[in-house]
Amino acid sequence: MMASYSPLRLLILVVLLFECWAVSTARSFDFYYFVQQWPGSYCGTRRGCCYPRTGKPASEFSIHGLWPNYKTGKWPQFCNPSDEFDFSQISDLVGELNSHWGSLSCPSSNGHKFWSHEWEKHGTCSLNLEQHEYFNKALALRSKIDLLGALKSAGIKPDGGDYSVSDIKEAIRNAIGEEVGVDCNVSEDGEYQLNEIYVCIDKSDASTVIKCPVYPHSKCPSTVKFPLFGDEEEDSTSSHQNTGSDEL
Ligand code: 5GP
Predict the structure, then answer these.
(1) Which of 88, 100, 186, 196 is the most exposed place for a label (fewest CB within 10 A)?
(2) Cβ distance 111 to 103 under 8 Å?
């Protein structure tokens, strides 16, 4: 006997099948990239930046995100639209988030929009991490992985000088035990500068540094600038005007 399905039942079936497919696709991610950005490079482009409403960030690498990735170089994204960012779940982390995961995009903001984007695009694909754990894991990784300390102890400083990318990678490998990915952007003067560092992290605990299964595509030439972002720079609320405030 053939079962008959109403259009509504069929629609529900299709939605359920799609959700199963989406979950199983995302579950098969292979590792995380933990990505930190150099504020002097984010700000030192023609686009410029806006400091967070909490003020100018410290002269430290800050968090861009913790991203589930496939070893093919591709990645899952926006894995669970119903799991929306909910600031109340991470309100106890706000001090640390402001210090280490502030948003530098314009207009100036309190970071909620950036954190919401990172959770909804990347965090929802971790599947096994709840929002609080996801943000907490990223903050713990930042305090464990001292990129600036590693670079400084090899004589590589954010002083506007030129440094070889292989020396940058070696300095960090000596400190954390594994090779990292390095990406660059272009300054107002058209020079390549050290922008982001990618550290590969084990998907099972979101905390162990591992050998990268694949490196991100890099725009860096062999030598790059490491720009200032500190007291030496003019001390305004924004390095490039753009002082509007956003809706959040
Ligand atoms: P993703 O690279 O995680 O896919 O997207 C980053 C998004 O967050 C972009 O839309 C970018 O404009 C926004 N954003 C807000 N603040 C920042 C920041 O400080 N750094 C970076 N890299 N992106 C930011």
Answers:
(1) 88
(2) yes
